[in-house]
Amino acid sequence: MAAVDPQLAGQEVLALDVATSNLRGMLEQLATVLGVSAPRRHVPLPLLRWLLKIPGAPGLLHSEPESLDFNQTMRFDTAATQALARRHQLVWPEITQALQATAHYLAAQQRPRGRAGAG
Q1: Beta-carbon neighbour count of residue 14 at 10 Å?
Q2: pTM beyond 0.70, yes or no
Q3: Which residues are CB-neighbours of 18 under 8 A, at least 6 positions away?
Q4: Which of 9, 58, 60, 112 is deepest in the core (most CB within 10 A)?
């Protein structure tokens, strides 16, 4: 970005939207779209890390150990990102709409498909 915005030379800018909800909020939004109940309980991360070391567990749980690194409870300073967006009149996409579209797409991918030539 420094090539586009000299004010960012030597700075890091996180591609994070301050309006993005936490994991629980996103799961609730996705569950609503899919017409299911959102999870009410969770497995502690240290236990999940340990479970994912068991051979075959990542495939069974549909989760790779590396994916756990993206689960963060801390909030990040997005002041530089917000300033960049204001200076360049950038608009964040609506996260709720993006989550809904993703949920609909993934649900459609899970539906059984008819056999070719059947019908």
Answers
A1: 11
A2: no
A3: 78, 82
A4: 58
Q: What is the pLDDT along the chain (119 residues), one digit of tens a residue?
A: 545 677 777 777 777 777 778 888 888 988 998 889 999 998 888 899 999 999 999 999 888 888 888 777 777 888 888 888 888 898 888 888 888 898 899 888 887 765 454 44
CB atoms within 10 A of CB 74: 4
Cα angle 105-109-113, degrees, rounded to a multiple of 5: 135
Output the six-digit token pair for 4. Answer: 């586009």
Domain borders along the chain are: 6-41+74-110
State the residue for tokens 């008819």. 114
DSSP for 70-91, written as a single string:
G---S----HHHHHHHHHTT--
